[in-house]
Amino acid sequence: MNFNPWHHVEIGDECPNVVNAIVEISKDSKTKYELDKKTGMLRLDRVLFSSLLYPENYGFIPKTLGEDHDPLDIVVISQCSIVPMCVVQARVIGVMRMIDHGEGDDKIIAVAEDDMSVSGIQDIGDLGKHFKMELQHFFEEYKALEQKTVLVEDFMDAATAKQILLDSINRYQETYA
């Protein structure tokens, strides 16, 4: 049996408050990697068409299934870039509700539990207005030169994010159990 981080890494004992996040893309990267769902390897999806860089570490939560039929996405805030395929304990603080190609594509927002520089952030409201504007700008613009449209609907609190997370766990279990 091949090891696949989506199916074989545990979500974490403190879920939905703290989850294991698997980083696919490091903060400040222009390289878009995606998990190959069949092999569990990272695949180069593309080099971003725009001059934008990922503003934070980006990846997925194991044993979840989002509305877009992929593992649930997660943005992990940290003062440093985290290497791809690293498992990070991430404290859920909110969610960015997003529509990509007409489908729901929520991004759980979390902070790296082991990074003391972000330990005071408990909920999405603790993030500055500018930070949320930057995150929204990145996700709405990084595909623009590909002639693709993404719409960020809203930022929601930790309670909403945790419910979305629990729903994605149920969806995963119904699909893969």
From TrEMBL:
General function of this protein: Catalyzes the hydrolysis of inorganic pyrophosphate (PPi) forming two phosphate ions.
Gene3D superfamilies for this protein: Inorganic pyrophosphatase
Biological process according to GO: phosphate-containing compound metabolic process
Positions that bind substrate: 32, 46, 58, 142
Catalytic activity: diphosphate + H2O = 2 phosphate + H(+)
PANTHER family: INORGANIC PYROPHOSPHATASE (PTHR10286)
A GO CC annotation given for this chain: cytoplasm
UniProt source species: Chlorobaculum limnaeum
First and last residue of the signal peptide: none
Annotated EC: 3.6.1.1
Keywords: Cytoplasm, Hydrolase, Magnesium, Metal-binding
Residues annotated to bind Mg(2+) 2: 73
UniProt family annotation: Belongs to the PPase family.
Broad EC category: hydrolase
Main location: cytoplasm
Subunit and interaction comment: Homohexamer.
Name this protein carries in UniProt: Inorganic pyrophosphatase
Cellular compartment(s): Cytoplasm
Keyword Cytoplasm among record annotations: yes
GO molecular function, one term: magnesium ion binding
Cofactors named for this entry: Mg(2+)
InterPro entries: Pyrophosphatase, Pyrophosphatase_sf
Residues holding Mg(2+) 1: 68, 73, 105
